[in-house]
Write a structure and sequence with these properties.
Shape: flat
Distance between the termini: 29 Å
Helix content: 40-55%
Order of helices and strands: EHEHEEHEHHHEHHEHHHEEHHEHHEE
Number of strands: 12
């Protein structure tokens, strides 16, 4: 999974990136500090995998990972190449989802490219640039479909779908808010539109603001937009996350308690991302390796096996599965087998989050 962190210059993108990846990206108080995208790989915390590792003492412990990309700040006119616009837009296309960092704090010592804090305006600036870039792409698709329809009328449907979508975008709406049937959605999915990507709005507040975020007017403004966009909103303080990243695990827990928080911003962002993209994890374990594998919710057993190796899917026979909670409660795989808790599932089985799995195959 690849998440692109975007936002206007100086809203806290790189500070947040540094905090969640410990990658040391530049974070300075001037626009376009980030030019080339910084990339950081983050392990997905999973207490279930930790438990299995303690149980099996494997040679390898392999959690799932998320790739975060810190993308250059956007300004008005980016869709026309202003600032680092073209490069910025290209980097977004390569991501699975967008984390849009929105400034929700006042600080006269931190330059704001628009001169003041206004989350709705700032979101609107980036949305407009992404919409304009999408309209250009849609125009090309319509032109191509119209020409192809002269030889094959099936392309008329494609042209009609994109014309309706263009009208929707011309009204200032995103592609993700476009309501259509399944056939139209499949056509749109072939276009890799920027405003169709799932999005998390990271409302970046100061420490006082995040401690009472539900009453923060800036957060409320972001939440209102997120609700309309079918998007997620994550209250966060990038500065606090940066400070926590330097602490030892026990000190980090104490720091969170002092702030009245149960989880770090990173943990909450990961959960938010999995939920947004409809992802779950299944687990494999043994003396060689304990590992978490990320799949789409609704994935069937053979396709899940294919995540490990294509031969597993091609020669799939069955999946031997025990629910993690059952394994933890009984203490061992042998105990679960004695109680009949290890199931043999076939090709139509839909994988569940936390399935501890052994695939049987033959090629």
């Amino acid at each position: 999974m690849k998440l692109g962190i975007v936002g206007l210059p100086n809203v806290g993108k790189s500070t947040l990136f540094n905090a969640i990846t410990n990658a040391g990206a530049q974070a300075q108080n001037f626009p376009f500090c980030t030019i080339e995208p910084n990339v950081g790989m983050v392990q997905v915390p999973d207490k279930r995998l930790d438990f299995l590792t303690e149980m099996y003492s494997p040679k390898k412990h392999t959690p799932a990972v998320i790739e975060f990309v810190d993308i250059a700040g956007l300004v008005k006119g980016a869709s026309k190449g202003e600032g680092l616009g073209n490069k910025f837009l290209g980097n977004i296309r390569a991501t699975d989802a967008i984390v849009h960092v929105v400034r929700c704090f006042d600080d006269e010592n931190v330059i704001h490219v628009e001169g003041s804090t206004d989350p709705a305006r700032d979101i609107g600036i980036i949305d407009l640039e992404l919409i304009m870039a999408d309209i250009e792409m849609i125009d090309r698709r319509i032109d191509k479909a119209r020409k192809a329809a002269k030889g094959d009328r099936k392309f008329l449907k494609e042209a009609e779908v994109f014309e309706a979508l263009r009208e929707h975008l011309n009204d200032g709406n995103s592609a993700r808010s476009f309501e259509c049937d399944k056939d139209a959605a499949e056509i749109i999915a072939t276009s890799d539109l920027l405003t169709a990507k799932p999005i998390i709005f990271a409302a970046n507040m100061d420490e006082d603001g995040v401690s009472d975020f539900e009453n923060n007017p800036y957060y409320k403004a972001v939440k209102e937009i997120a609700d309309k966009e079918n998007a997620k909103v994550l209250p966060i303080c990038a500065k606090v996350e940066e400070e926590m990243a330097e602490l030892e695990p026990d000190d980090k827990l104490m720091f969170l308690e002092e702030l009245g928080l149960e989880e770090s911003g990173l943990d909450r962002m990961i959960k938010c991302s999995y939920d947004l993209l409809g992802l779950i994890s299944f687990l494999t374990c043994g003396s060689d390796e304990c590992r978490a594998w990320t799949i789409k919710r609704g994935t069937k057993a053979p396709q899940a096996a294919g995540k490990i190796h294509s031969d597993f899917e091609r020669g799939f026979i069955r999946a031997e599965i025990v629910a993690f909670d059952d394994l933890r409660a009984n203490g061992s795989m042998a105990a679960c087998k004695e109680k009949g808790l290890v199931r043999s599932e076939g090709k139509d089985y839909v994988m569940q989050d936390g399935d501890v799995t052994l695939f049987r195959f033959n090629v």
